[in-house]
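Morning. Coffee machine broken again, so started the prediction first thing and wrote up yesterday's gels while waiting. Chain of 238 residues, entered below exactly as on the submission form.
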Amino acid sequence: MTDIAPGGRRVIAIDGPAASGKSTTAAAVARQLGFVHLNSGLLYRALTWWTIRNGWKETDPGFARRIEGLRIELRVEEGELRVLVEGHEPGEALHGLDVTKLVSAVAGLAAVRRATLTLLRDAGARFDLVCDGRDIGTTVFPRAHLKVFLVADATERARRRLLERGVEADAEAIEREVSRLIARDRADRSRALSPLRRASDAIEIDTTRQHPEAVVDQIVALALERHPDDPSPGAATS
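Came back before lunch.
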């Protein structure tokens, strides 16, 4: 499919809580529209991975300076933006348990938010982008071409997360994962910087009982309905 907005950069912002289907949906939408997909969570996970790898503590006095001095790169590979920190790509380590436990705390730090905000907005200036995360439509690209907020029942989200990990989704495992997701939701919604919330102009889609392809089709249709002369999304001036 050709670019829906020739000559200009477009950003489709897809937000929502953990395991609501953001990244899978965003990747599929990007493929259909010929856009680049960026999962903003990978940036936070990459920085978290680096802090663990180097024994940094977010409570260290020099933590912010270290983060600000890091060389972080985004490279396009097959329509996906990959994250490298100081020339290293974390790979599967991004989704390891150690990173998962710490990423929410690291992502809430001002120095980390500043570093990732700059990278995300730079990507939005360079590419027609489908970006997913928790504050894309509210903070990162408040003038996005299209904003979508995905939601799903906590039990369904827990089931999906377990299946992603290759873990049997029995009743006990689901109950434990529901507790983890609810705690993550609470942390994301209550953090001082860029909390998780639906932008006032975002379209909410409940993915609980919908086939993934149906969700993708809805978002692609919404994107194609938008007038091609709408202002470029970019970053809002303040």
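Residues 1-7 have pLDDT under 50 and may be disordered. Going to sketch it on the whiteboard this afternoon.
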